[in-house]
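agent: user wants the structure for Small ribosomal subunit biogenesis GTPase RsgA from Nocardiopsis changdeensis. delegating to structure tool.
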Amino acid sequence: MNTRVTDTPPHPLTALGWNPRVAAAFDSVAHGSEHLLVPGRVSAARRGGSVVRVPGDEVPADHSPAVLKDTRTDPTLAPCTGDWVALRRSGDAWLVEAVLERSGTLVRQGIAKDSYDQVLAANVDRVLICEAADQGPNVGRLERFLSLVWAGGAEPVVAVTKAELAGDRLPEVVELVRSVSPGIEVHVVSAHTGQGLDALAERMAPGSTWVLLGTSGAGKSSLVNAVAGQELMDTGAIRGDKRGRHTTTHRQLLVLPRGAVVLDIPGVRRIDVPGEAEGVDRTFADVTELAEQCRFRDCVHETEPGCAVRAAIDEGELDLSRLERWNRLRRESERNRARGDARLRSEQTRVWKARTKEGRERGRLKRGGR
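agent: tool returned. relaying tokens verbatim.
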């Protein structure tokens, strides 16, 4: 007997990046809920609510009491652009019942000692770091961006934008970018002339989620429009000091004609290095590999005998300034990790005091209110 084999139809949210990992996360939440839940992906976030793509529609959704409670405890748990969520109907409204487990995030560090980090985008596969050829590159900023991406679990890709404006400096700019991005894919592109756009568009596979990261004026919006072949984003003029205006003022989710998902976020000028040391170490993989070859485990790479890092500098294989930037970012990472630990301890102390106060009140009531 012949058995007829039919192809399983794709999930309605496949075009937005739905995959087995997300499906398993949703099933885990849905099976444990007393409500009928549907999956969706956050296309824009706002205070107390979100705009969510669901099969065949895009709907505004408020946050459920459970999500609001989690957000008050830790603001980083609030739904953000790119999050996969489980929704339920409440009368005529939609409620975000749960935020599914994230994979690949872009997180900006909190500045104050007691401030929380800010999740800029979630469930990111790759981050396209845009450096304008006519303005740089800014090596220190690029290394910070790379550290941020690696720490969040996404893959960094670099785009040298506005290639037509660099003139004879373009080879020098590209070489400098490659020197601080060892092993990382670098695309030289121009939204004006079309240079490098086909290769970049081919790289942005259907169902993959990308974030464009860079300062205002780096040409992110123009690049997205050029890759898409249509005007998906507004573009703005460059100021007299060559610093761009913020044409993106909020976060949003865009689907390119070829199928890739782009999470559009505002230009970022200040980036603090994450407290996770892995981000810095992967950005400076060439330095860390040398450091592992030093004679002493606690080598600080100054005057110690058998220092492989200093030997590489003496032989011209490693630039001294790169070692100095590595040390500087490692120290900053350690400070941010300590700040995060201090905030966590403060939060734990607050919770402990609140519970102690509740326990005393219950005891007082049991004694008759005395």
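agent: one observation worth passing along. The two ends are 83 Å apart (CA to CA).
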